[in-house]
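// run 5 | inverse folding | seed 20
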């Protein structure tokens, strides 16, 4: 599983500073996923992050530079967005997306337990 370790460190730092909720890291989707309260929040791959957003904000977010929908097979995963690392160079840029994911996290449905 390839993921950008430096970008993961930056995400880890931002999440830890922004929440007192339970945080776990899992290798999934070919990268590293940060789970907050047992819910997928932010994922890190080699050249982008995946953020889980409020579905109402999804279409607006797609209009932002460096953003594209997460696609699994032929299905667009509404509420899941890829953000290219080229638009995450500054702390403020990355913090914007991490905070959007954290804002939605309390409302997000948890995955089913196996």
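// decoded
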């Amino acid at each position: 599983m390839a993921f950008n370790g430096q970008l993961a460190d930056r995400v880890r730092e931002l999440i830890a500073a922004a929440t007192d909720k339970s945080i776990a890291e899992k290798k999934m989707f070919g990268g590293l996923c940060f789970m907050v309260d047992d819910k997928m929040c932010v994922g890190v791959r080699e050249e982008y992050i995946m953020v889980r957003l409020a579905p109402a904000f999804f279409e607006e977010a797609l209009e932002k530079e460096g953003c594209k929908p997460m696609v699994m097979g032929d299905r667009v995963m509404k509420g899941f967005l890829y953000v290219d690392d080229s638009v995450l160079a500054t702390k403020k840029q990355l913090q914007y997306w991490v905070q959007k994911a954290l804002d939605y996290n309390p409302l997000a449905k948890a995955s089913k337990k196996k």
